[in-house]
Amino acid sequence: MQLASKSDVQAALGRDLSEGEAARIEHLLDLISAKFEAEARCSFTKSERTHRVKVNGGQAYPPIVPIQSVQSVVDDDGLAIPFRVRAGAVVVDLPSDEFVTVTYTSGLDKVPDRVRLQVADSVARLLRADPRAAAGQTQASTTTGPFSESSSFAAWTVGGQGLLSPDDLALARSYRPRRVNVWVGGVR
Questions:
Q1: Closest to 111 measured CA to CA, from 17, 45, 22
Q2: Looking only at Cα atoms, what is the longest distance across the chain?
Q3: Which of 6, 68, 83, 95 is 20 to 30 A (C-alpha) from 156?
Q4: For residues 184 and 96, is the Cβ–Cβ distance under 8 A?
Q5: Is 47-106 a domain of CATH 2.60.40?
Q6: Any idea what the Cα angle at residue 31 is, between residues 29 and 35, rounded to 5°?
Q7: Which of the pair, 186 or 38, is modelled with greater confidence?
Q8: Could you tell me the residue ranges of all domains in the chain?
Q9: pTM exceeds 0.85 for this model
Q10: Contact 47, 107 (CB under 8 A)
């Protein structure tokens, strides 16, 4: 799901999209949105997910937060396990050496404005990238008479790849879940 819109990117650029940019915009929005969510380890749009997770101290932590609701919890034999949800954890009465499969809905009701604007700015940056950097150059210099101009390009812009900038990464990581997950082995 896209975390920003075409109009957000146009606002970041300060102009309408050219014909070539309009042809790429949907792909770039999908790409940067997916990379941003993966880096954040957080879902900014609601979706249903199923993950197999380890029980630790009677709690299982599905990897994608925030958890809106839990539909089911089953063990490795496919048996339904009673559960309750508490502060992002699924509480089950199982030992710490067990795994459960959790089907849950995660995500936010609305993409936060700072995420939407950051993703739009990232896509705008890709569209504004110097053609020399997009072609793979790391440096460029031009000399005309007594004048010379030298340029070097940021590593994340070289090759025209859809990479997140250090600023994008910092914002995405600020949404990561803050939890300690200690694995405890059990003996039967």
A1: 45
A2: 82
A3: 6
A4: yes
A5: yes
A6: 115
A7: 38
A8: 6-43+110-173, 47-106
A9: no
A10: yes
Buried b (16+ CB within 10 A) or exposed e, 92-121: bebeeebebbbebebbbeebeeebbbbbbb
> What is each CA distance from 184 to 49, 52, 99, in whole angstroms?
25, 17, 12
Nearest-angstrom CA–CA distance, 186 and 188: 7
Q: Token pair for residue 171?
A: 């914002």
Q: Give 3-state DSSP helix, strand, coil % of the chain, rounded to 5.
A: 30, 30, 40
Per-residue confidence band for 169, with pLDDT thresholds at 50, 70 and 90: very high
- Rounded average pLDDT over 34-45: 92
Which amino acid, residue 111? V
Q: Pull the structure tokens for residue 184.
A: 């405890």
CB crowding 125-161: b at 16 or more within 10 Å, else e: bbbebeeebeeeeeeeeeeeeeeeeeeebeebbbbee
Query: For residues 132 and 23, what is the distance between their CA atoms, to the nearest angstrom?
Result: 20
Cα-flanking dihedrals φ and ψ of residue 20, to 5°? Answer: -65, -40
pLDDT value of residue 138: 72
Encoding tokens for residue 104?
């849950």
Quote the mean pLDDT of the chain.
87
The helix or strand, by DSSP H or E, that contains position 178, with its residue range, turns out to be none
